[in-house]
Automatic annotation (TrEMBL):
The keyword Oxidoreductase applies. PANTHER family: OXOGLUTARATE/IRON-DEPENDENT DIOXYGENASE. Keywords: Iron, Metal-binding, Oxidoreductase. InterPro entries: DIOX_N, IPNS-like_FE2OG_OXY, IPNS-like_sf, Oxoglu/Fe-dep_dioxygenase_dom, Plant_2OG-oxidoreductases. This is Fe2OG dioxygenase domain-containing protein. Belongs to the iron/ascorbate-dependent oxidoreductase family. It holds the Pfam family 2OG-FeII_Oxy. The lineage of its organism: Eukaryota, Viridiplantae, Streptophyta, Embryophyta, Tracheophyta. It comes from Panicum hallii. Residues 199-299 form the Fe2OG dioxygenase domain. GO terms for molecular function: metal ion binding; oxidoreductase activity.
Protein backbone atom coordinates (compact mmCIF):
# COMPACT_ATOMS: atom_id res chain seq x y z
CA UNK A 1 0.00 0.00 0.00
CA UNK A 2 1.21 3.53 -0.71
CA UNK A 3 2.66 5.41 2.23
CA UNK A 4 0.76 8.36 3.62
CA UNK A 5 2.95 10.84 1.73
CA UNK A 6 2.22 9.09 -1.59
CA UNK A 7 -1.55 9.00 -1.23
CA UNK A 8 -3.19 11.58 -3.47
CA UNK A 9 -6.85 12.00 -2.77
CA UNK A 10 -7.51 15.09 -4.87
CA UNK A 11 -10.02 17.78 -3.97
CA UNK A 12 -12.20 16.58 -1.09
CA UNK A 13 -14.81 19.18 -0.21
CA UNK A 14 -16.30 19.41 3.22
CA UNK A 15 -19.93 18.46 2.67
CA UNK A 16 -21.27 20.65 5.44
CA UNK A 17 -19.64 23.61 3.71
CA UNK A 18 -21.16 22.55 0.38
CA UNK A 19 -24.54 22.42 2.05
CA UNK A 20 -23.98 25.78 3.73
CA UNK A 21 -23.15 27.32 0.35
CA UNK A 22 -26.66 26.42 -0.79
CA UNK A 23 -25.58 24.21 -3.66
CA UNK A 24 -28.38 23.00 -5.92
CA UNK A 25 -26.40 20.23 -7.51
CA UNK A 26 -23.59 18.00 -6.21
CA UNK A 27 -19.99 17.80 -7.43
CA UNK A 28 -19.22 14.95 -9.79
CA UNK A 29 -17.12 13.06 -7.26
CA UNK A 30 -20.23 12.34 -5.19
CA UNK A 31 -22.42 11.12 -8.02
CA UNK A 32 -22.67 7.34 -7.99
CA UNK A 33 -22.90 5.07 -10.96
CA UNK A 34 -26.38 3.75 -11.69
CA UNK A 35 -26.31 0.49 -9.68
CA UNK A 36 -24.81 2.18 -6.70
CA UNK A 37 -27.50 4.84 -6.37
CA UNK A 38 -29.83 4.62 -3.39
CA UNK A 39 -33.15 4.89 -5.22
CA UNK A 40 -34.83 2.15 -7.11
CA UNK A 41 -36.95 -0.82 -6.35
CA UNK A 42 -34.54 -2.78 -4.18
CA UNK A 43 -35.49 -0.84 -1.04
CA UNK A 44 -37.83 -2.71 1.24
CA UNK A 45 -39.34 0.10 3.27
CA UNK A 46 -41.77 -2.03 5.27
CA UNK A 47 -39.44 -4.58 6.85
CA UNK A 48 -37.91 -3.95 10.28
CA UNK A 49 -34.80 -5.31 11.92
CA UNK A 50 -35.52 -7.22 15.18
CA UNK A 51 -35.68 -5.46 18.56
CA UNK A 52 -34.08 -7.24 21.52
CA UNK A 53 -34.74 -6.50 25.19
CA UNK A 54 -31.32 -6.92 26.82
CA UNK A 55 -32.82 -7.13 30.31
CA UNK A 56 -34.79 -10.21 29.23
CA UNK A 57 -31.88 -12.14 27.74
CA UNK A 58 -31.75 -14.42 30.76
CA UNK A 59 -34.98 -15.92 29.40
CA UNK A 60 -34.84 -18.59 26.74
CA UNK A 61 -37.40 -16.99 24.44
CA UNK A 62 -35.53 -13.66 24.27
CA UNK A 63 -32.21 -15.48 23.82
CA UNK A 64 -33.80 -17.40 20.99
CA UNK A 65 -34.92 -14.12 19.44
CA UNK A 66 -31.32 -12.95 19.64
CA UNK A 67 -30.13 -16.13 17.94
CA UNK A 68 -32.60 -15.63 15.10
CA UNK A 69 -31.61 -11.95 14.80
CA UNK A 70 -27.95 -12.97 14.48
CA UNK A 71 -28.68 -15.77 12.02
CA UNK A 72 -31.14 -13.99 9.80
CA UNK A 73 -30.16 -10.34 10.02
CA UNK A 74 -26.76 -9.79 11.65
CA UNK A 75 -28.44 -6.56 12.78
CA UNK A 76 -30.83 -5.71 15.59
CA UNK A 77 -31.78 -2.85 17.89
CA UNK A 78 -31.43 -3.21 21.66
CA UNK A 79 -33.66 -1.61 24.27
CA UNK A 80 -33.42 -1.87 28.07
CA UNK A 81 -29.66 -2.01 27.51
CA UNK A 82 -28.66 -0.46 30.84
CA UNK A 83 -27.12 2.75 29.49
CA UNK A 84 -28.78 5.88 30.82
CA UNK A 85 -30.81 7.96 28.41
CA UNK A 86 -29.18 11.13 29.74
CA UNK A 87 -25.71 9.90 28.81
CA UNK A 88 -26.85 8.99 25.28
CA UNK A 89 -28.52 12.40 24.93
CA UNK A 90 -25.44 14.20 26.19
CA UNK A 91 -23.12 12.35 23.80
CA UNK A 92 -25.41 13.10 20.88
CA UNK A 93 -25.68 16.77 21.84
CA UNK A 94 -21.91 17.21 22.15
CA UNK A 95 -21.19 15.37 18.90
CA UNK A 96 -23.68 17.60 17.13
CA UNK A 97 -22.15 20.70 18.72
CA UNK A 98 -18.75 19.58 17.46
CA UNK A 99 -19.97 19.23 13.86
CA UNK A 100 -21.65 22.65 14.09
CA UNK A 101 -18.33 24.37 14.89
CA UNK A 102 -16.75 26.51 12.17
CA UNK A 103 -14.61 24.49 9.77
CA UNK A 104 -11.36 26.12 11.02
CA UNK A 105 -12.10 24.84 14.50
CA UNK A 106 -12.79 21.27 13.33
CA UNK A 107 -9.70 21.32 11.17
CA UNK A 108 -7.59 21.56 14.31
CA UNK A 109 -8.07 17.79 14.47
CA UNK A 110 -7.23 16.82 10.91
CA UNK A 111 -7.37 13.30 9.55
CA UNK A 112 -4.22 12.73 7.48
CA UNK A 113 -4.72 11.50 3.88
CA UNK A 114 -5.16 7.75 4.16
CA UNK A 115 -5.47 8.12 7.94
CA UNK A 116 -8.26 6.86 10.18
CA UNK A 117 -8.32 9.20 13.16
CA UNK A 118 -9.43 12.81 13.34
CA UNK A 119 -11.89 14.96 11.42
CA UNK A 120 -12.23 14.36 7.71
CA UNK A 121 -12.90 11.64 5.18
CA UNK A 122 -11.71 8.14 6.04
CA UNK A 123 -11.27 5.43 3.39
CA UNK A 124 -10.27 7.80 0.59
CA UNK A 125 -7.18 6.58 -1.24
CA UNK A 126 -7.27 7.88 -4.78
CA UNK A 127 -8.21 10.89 -6.86
CA UNK A 128 -10.88 9.12 -8.87
CA UNK A 129 -12.70 7.48 -5.98
CA UNK A 130 -16.37 8.38 -5.41
CA UNK A 131 -16.93 10.21 -2.14
CA UNK A 132 -19.48 9.79 0.61
CA UNK A 133 -21.81 12.66 1.58
CA UNK A 134 -20.60 12.62 5.15
CA UNK A 135 -18.25 14.26 7.61
CA UNK A 136 -16.51 12.08 10.16
CA UNK A 137 -14.70 12.40 13.43
CA UNK A 138 -12.94 9.14 14.25
CA UNK A 139 -11.03 8.42 17.46
CA UNK A 140 -9.25 5.40 18.89
CA UNK A 141 -10.36 4.86 22.50
CA UNK A 142 -8.97 1.60 23.94
CA UNK A 143 -6.39 0.30 24.63
CA UNK A 144 -4.62 3.54 25.59
CA UNK A 145 -1.83 3.07 23.03
CA UNK A 146 -4.21 3.62 20.10
CA UNK A 147 -5.33 7.00 21.43
CA UNK A 148 -4.18 10.15 19.72
CA UNK A 149 -5.00 12.70 22.43
CA UNK A 150 -4.25 15.66 20.14
CA UNK A 151 -7.22 14.64 17.97
CA UNK A 152 -9.72 14.66 20.85
CA UNK A 153 -11.69 17.91 20.58
CA UNK A 154 -11.28 20.37 23.44
CA UNK A 155 -14.46 22.14 22.27
CA UNK A 156 -17.22 21.54 23.26
CA UNK A 157 -15.72 21.61 26.75
CA UNK A 158 -17.37 18.43 28.03
CA UNK A 159 -16.71 16.37 24.91
CA UNK A 160 -13.70 14.41 26.16
CA UNK A 161 -15.06 13.61 29.60
CA UNK A 162 -18.43 12.54 28.16
CA UNK A 163 -16.85 10.36 25.48
CA UNK A 164 -14.76 8.65 28.18
CA UNK A 165 -17.84 7.90 30.25
CA UNK A 166 -19.84 6.85 27.21
CA UNK A 167 -17.10 4.52 26.01
CA UNK A 168 -16.89 2.73 29.37
CA UNK A 169 -20.64 2.10 29.25
CA UNK A 170 -20.63 0.97 25.63
CA UNK A 171 -17.69 -1.35 26.35
CA UNK A 172 -19.69 -2.97 29.15
CA UNK A 173 -22.64 -3.43 26.79
CA UNK A 174 -20.42 -5.02 24.12
CA UNK A 175 -19.07 -7.48 26.66
CA UNK A 176 -22.56 -8.40 27.86
CA UNK A 177 -23.88 -8.78 24.34
CA UNK A 178 -20.92 -10.95 23.32
CA UNK A 179 -21.59 -13.20 26.32
CA UNK A 180 -25.21 -13.61 25.22
CA UNK A 181 -24.19 -14.11 21.58
CA UNK A 182 -21.82 -16.87 22.75
CA UNK A 183 -24.75 -18.48 24.57
CA UNK A 184 -26.87 -18.43 21.43
CA UNK A 185 -24.10 -20.44 19.77
CA UNK A 186 -23.91 -23.00 22.59
CA UNK A 187 -20.57 -21.58 23.75
CA UNK A 188 -19.55 -20.64 27.30
CA UNK A 189 -20.50 -16.98 27.92
CA UNK A 190 -16.86 -15.98 28.43
CA UNK A 191 -15.64 -17.45 25.14
CA UNK A 192 -15.26 -14.22 23.17
CA UNK A 193 -14.18 -12.14 26.17
CA UNK A 194 -11.33 -14.59 26.87
CA UNK A 195 -10.34 -14.82 23.24
CA UNK A 196 -10.35 -11.10 22.50
CA UNK A 197 -7.84 -10.08 25.19
CA UNK A 198 -7.72 -6.31 25.74
CA UNK A 199 -10.32 -5.46 23.09
CA UNK A 200 -9.81 -2.59 20.68
CA UNK A 201 -12.49 0.09 20.83
CA UNK A 202 -12.85 3.00 18.45
CA UNK A 203 -15.58 5.54 17.87
CA UNK A 204 -16.65 7.23 14.67
CA UNK A 205 -19.13 10.07 14.64
CA UNK A 206 -20.79 10.54 11.27
CA UNK A 207 -22.61 13.70 10.27
CA UNK A 208 -24.73 13.65 7.13
CA UNK A 209 -25.88 17.14 6.05
CA UNK A 210 -28.95 17.44 3.82
CA UNK A 211 -28.08 16.77 0.19
CA UNK A 212 -29.73 18.53 -2.77
CA UNK A 213 -29.67 15.32 -4.87
CA UNK A 214 -30.05 12.43 -2.39
CA UNK A 215 -31.05 10.02 -5.15
CA UNK A 216 -27.57 10.31 -6.71
CA UNK A 217 -25.29 10.00 -3.68
CA UNK A 218 -24.56 7.79 -0.71
CA UNK A 219 -24.00 9.05 2.84
CA UNK A 220 -21.72 6.08 3.46
CA UNK A 221 -20.73 3.41 0.92
CA UNK A 222 -21.96 -0.15 1.45
CA UNK A 223 -19.61 -2.11 3.70
CA UNK A 224 -19.41 -4.64 6.49
CA UNK A 225 -17.66 -3.64 9.71
CA UNK A 226 -14.18 -4.97 10.51
CA UNK A 227 -15.16 -5.26 14.19
CA UNK A 228 -16.60 -8.13 16.23
CA UNK A 229 -19.65 -6.06 17.17
CA UNK A 230 -20.64 -2.47 16.41
CA UNK A 231 -22.92 -0.26 18.49
CA UNK A 232 -24.60 2.55 16.59
CA UNK A 233 -26.45 5.39 18.22
CA UNK A 234 -28.50 7.48 15.82
CA UNK A 235 -30.56 10.60 16.25
CA UNK A 236 -34.30 10.56 15.70
CA UNK A 237 -34.23 12.66 12.52
CA UNK A 238 -34.84 10.01 9.86
CA UNK A 239 -34.05 6.47 8.74
CA UNK A 240 -30.70 6.88 6.97
CA UNK A 241 -29.06 3.55 7.77
CA UNK A 242 -29.98 0.64 5.49
CA UNK A 243 -29.17 -3.02 5.93
CA UNK A 244 -29.14 -5.65 3.21
CA UNK A 245 -31.61 -8.51 3.61
CA UNK A 246 -32.30 -11.06 0.89
CA UNK A 247 -30.87 -8.67 -1.69
CA UNK A 248 -33.00 -5.66 -0.65
CA UNK A 249 -32.10 -2.63 1.45
CA UNK A 250 -34.08 -2.37 4.67
CA UNK A 251 -34.11 1.04 6.45
CA UNK A 252 -33.42 1.06 10.18
CA UNK A 253 -36.04 3.28 11.77
CA UNK A 254 -34.80 5.10 14.86
CA UNK A 255 -36.38 4.09 18.19
CA UNK A 256 -35.82 6.62 21.01
CA UNK A 257 -32.76 5.63 23.09
CA UNK A 258 -32.40 2.24 21.43
CA UNK A 259 -28.98 1.25 20.07
CA UNK A 260 -28.39 -0.53 16.79
CA UNK A 261 -26.08 -3.54 17.03
CA UNK A 262 -24.45 -5.32 14.14
CA UNK A 263 -22.10 -8.26 13.89
CA UNK A 264 -18.72 -7.59 12.30
CA UNK A 265 -16.23 -9.61 10.29
CA UNK A 266 -14.51 -11.18 13.36
CA UNK A 267 -17.67 -13.00 14.39
CA UNK A 268 -18.27 -14.25 10.86
CA UNK A 269 -14.79 -15.78 10.84
CA UNK A 270 -14.97 -17.23 14.36
CA UNK A 271 -18.34 -18.88 13.67
CA UNK A 272 -17.16 -20.07 10.24
CA UNK A 273 -20.00 -18.11 8.66
CA UNK A 274 -22.80 -19.37 10.92
CA UNK A 275 -23.28 -15.71 11.83
CA UNK A 276 -22.38 -13.20 9.16
CA UNK A 277 -21.31 -9.59 9.10
CA UNK A 278 -23.97 -7.90 7.03
CA UNK A 279 -23.54 -5.16 4.46
CA UNK A 280 -25.02 -1.81 5.28
CA UNK A 281 -24.87 1.76 3.98
CA UNK A 282 -26.21 5.21 4.78
CA UNK A 283 -28.39 7.33 2.52
CA UNK A 284 -29.11 11.05 2.76
CA UNK A 285 -32.14 13.22 2.18
CA UNK A 286 -32.74 16.78 1.08
CA UNK A 287 -34.53 18.01 4.19
CA UNK A 288 -32.76 16.82 7.28
CA UNK A 289 -29.28 16.26 8.56
CA UNK A 290 -28.49 13.12 10.49
CA UNK A 291 -25.96 12.16 13.14
CA UNK A 292 -24.68 8.77 14.23
CA UNK A 293 -22.17 7.82 16.94
CA UNK A 294 -20.68 4.45 16.12
CA UNK A 295 -18.50 2.28 18.36
CA UNK A 296 -16.43 -0.56 16.93
CA UNK A 297 -15.44 -3.30 19.37
CA UNK A 298 -12.84 -5.77 18.14
CA UNK A 299 -10.28 -8.30 19.37
CA UNK A 300 -6.83 -7.10 20.49
CA UNK A 301 -4.45 -6.69 17.54
CA UNK A 302 -2.22 -9.59 18.58
CA UNK A 303 -5.09 -12.10 18.57
CA UNK A 304 -5.02 -14.85 15.95
CA UNK A 305 -8.46 -15.41 14.47
CA UNK A 306 -9.88 -18.36 12.59
CA UNK A 307 -13.02 -20.48 12.76
CA UNK A 308 -13.56 -22.11 16.16
CA UNK A 309 -13.40 -25.91 15.88
CA UNK A 310 -17.07 -26.20 16.99
CA UNK A 311 -18.17 -24.66 13.69
CA UNK A 312 -16.12 -26.73 11.31
CA UNK A 313 -17.79 -29.98 10.35
CA UNK A 314 -18.16 -32.19 7.30
CA UNK A 315 -21.28 -30.22 6.37
CA UNK A 316 -19.66 -26.89 7.11
CA UNK A 317 -16.07 -27.06 5.87
CA UNK A 318 -13.60 -24.44 6.99
CA UNK A 319 -14.18 -21.23 5.02
CA UNK A 320 -11.61 -18.87 6.53
CA UNK A 321 -7.91 -19.14 7.12
CA UNK A 322 -6.20 -18.25 10.34
CA UNK A 323 -4.85 -14.70 10.47
CA UNK A 324 -3.61 -12.04 12.80
CA UNK A 325 -6.38 -9.59 13.66
CA UNK A 326 -4.01 -6.57 13.66
CA UNK A 327 -3.03 -7.46 10.13
CA UNK A 328 -6.68 -7.68 9.14
CA UNK A 329 -7.41 -4.30 10.73
CA UNK A 330 -4.60 -2.73 8.72
CA UNK A 331 -5.93 -4.39 5.58
CA UNK A 332 -9.42 -3.06 6.35
CA UNK A 333 -8.42 0.55 6.94
CA UNK A 334 -6.14 0.81 3.93
CA UNK A 335 -8.86 0.06 1.40
CA UNK A 336 -11.97 1.86 0.33
CA UNK A 337 -15.31 0.64 1.65
CA UNK A 338 -16.65 -1.80 -0.88
CA UNK A 339 -19.28 -4.20 0.35
CA UNK A 340 -17.75 -7.28 1.91
CA UNK A 341 -14.66 -7.21 -0.23
CA UNK A 342 -12.20 -6.79 2.65
CA UNK A 343 -13.20 -10.16 4.09
CA UNK A 344 -11.82 -11.82 0.95
CA UNK A 345 -8.57 -11.43 2.87
CA UNK A 346 -9.56 -14.35 5.08
CA UNK A 347 -11.60 -16.52 2.72
CA UNK A 348 -10.21 -19.89 1.81
CA UNK A 349 -10.23 -20.06 -1.94
CA UNK A 350 -12.28 -23.10 -2.88
CA UNK A 351 -10.09 -23.91 -5.84
CA UNK A 352 -6.89 -23.75 -3.85
CA UNK A 353 -4.54 -26.69 -4.29
CA UNK A 354 -3.45 -26.57 -0.67
CA UNK A 355 -5.00 -29.20 1.57
CA UNK A 356 -7.64 -27.56 3.80
CA UNK A 357 -5.79 -28.75 6.91
CA UNK A 358 -2.88 -26.55 5.97
CA UNK A 359 -5.09 -23.46 5.88
CA UNK A 360 -7.60 -24.06 8.60
CA UNK A 361 -6.66 -23.28 12.15
CA UNK A 362 -8.84 -25.86 13.79
CA UNK A 363 -7.45 -29.06 12.32
C1 LIG B 1 -20.31 2.95 10.16
C2 LIG B 1 -21.71 2.88 9.71
C3 LIG B 1 -23.84 4.00 9.43
C4 LIG B 1 -24.55 5.24 9.86
O1 LIG B 1 -19.90 4.03 10.64
O2 LIG B 1 -19.60 1.92 10.03
O3 LIG B 1 -22.11 1.87 9.19
O4 LIG B 1 -25.76 5.23 9.80
N1 LIG B 1 -22.50 3.97 9.87
O5 LIG B 1 -23.88 6.19 10.24
NI1 LIG C 1 -20.68 0.26 9.42
Amino acid sequence: MASEAEIKIGQVDDVQELHRAGLETVPDRYIRDGDDRPGGDNVCALAHIPVIDVGELTRDDELNKLRLACEEWGFFQVVNHGIEDELLDEMEKLAREFFMLPLEEKEKYPMAPGGIQGYGHAFVFSEDQKLDWCNMLALGVEPAFIRQPKLWPTTPAKFKETLEKYSVEIRGLCRRLLAHIAETLGLAPGTFGDLFGEAVQAVRMNFYPPCPRPELVLGLSAHSDGSAVTVLQQDMSCAGLQVIKDGAWVPVHPIPHALVINLGDSLEVLTNGRYRSVEHRAVTNSEQDRLSVVTFYAPAYDVELGPLPEFVTDEAPCRYRRFNHGEYSRHYVTRRLEGKKTLEFAKINQITTAAPEELCSCK
